[in-house]
Amino acid sequence: MLNSSYEPLRIVNWQKALILWFQGKVDILAHHQSFVRSISKSFPLPSVIRLRKYVRGQETTRIRFCRENIYLRDNFMCQYCCEQFPTRDLTLDHIVPVSQGGKKDWNNITTACRTCNQKKGSRTPEQADMPLLKKAEEPRWLPALKFEVNEKTAPSDWFIYLNLDEKLA
Ligand SMILES: [Zn+2]
């Protein structure tokens, strides 16, 4: 789904896309090859939709605070040893441990491999002498969207909006 200014906002499923279209909130800019049928009609599935009214980023794009999105924010990289791991080898670490009053939010949860998480234990990065690769923050929408889609996973209709064209050359 694009903003009225053509910026990519987020990925919505086709059901949501059709609902927004029925409600007159979006225009369909491109379709998939497949169709969805109701009793009397059939509709091509939208692959790119654009909001008719401009919305400001924050209103629609607040990123959900959950395990997957934290891994995405951190690019599947342990923030202590700076290596990438498959999801099964990653854990979520409280930067300031719960025992020292650390909260469970974007600013205090980071991605750590099992080894680093165990090594750090219930200490702060300073106490453990394990500096963080980067400060933990609430991510903005665009980086997260870019991690989610690349030229292998995105339908080709999306490329021009995501500036993926150059990579294909
Ligand atoms: Zn690690």
Describe this structure in words.
- The chain has 169 residues and is of the alpha+beta class.
- It folds into two domains: 14-62 and 148-168, no CATH class; 67-128, DNA Binding (I), subunit A (Orthogonal Bundle), CATH 1.10.30.
- It contains eight helices and four strands, in the order αββααββααααα.
- A two-stranded antiparallel ribbon has the order 1-2. Strands 3-4 form a two-stranded antiparallel sheet.
- It is elongated and about 65 Å long.
- The structure holds zinc ion (ZN).
- Zinc ion binds at residues 78, 80-81, 112-113, 115-116.
Largest sheet: 2 strands, antiparallel
Rough shape?
A: elongated
The helix-strand sequence is HEEHHEEHHHHH
Put simply, the count of helices is 8
Q: Rounded to an integer, what's the Rg over CA atoms?
A: 20 Å
The mean pLDDT is: 85
Which spans have pLDDT < 50 for at least 5 consecutive residues? none
State the total count of DSSP E strands: 4
Query: Which hetero compounds are present in the coordinates?
Result: zinc ion
Instruction: Output the strand order for the largest sheet.
Output: 1-2
Which range does the strand content fall in?
A: 15-25%
- Backbone structural class: alpha+beta
Which range best describes the helical content: under 10%, 10-25%, 25-40%, 40-55%, 55-70% or over 70%?
25-40%
Oligomeric assembly: single chain
Q: State the distance separating the first and last CA atoms.
A: 25 Å
Integer tally of domains: 2
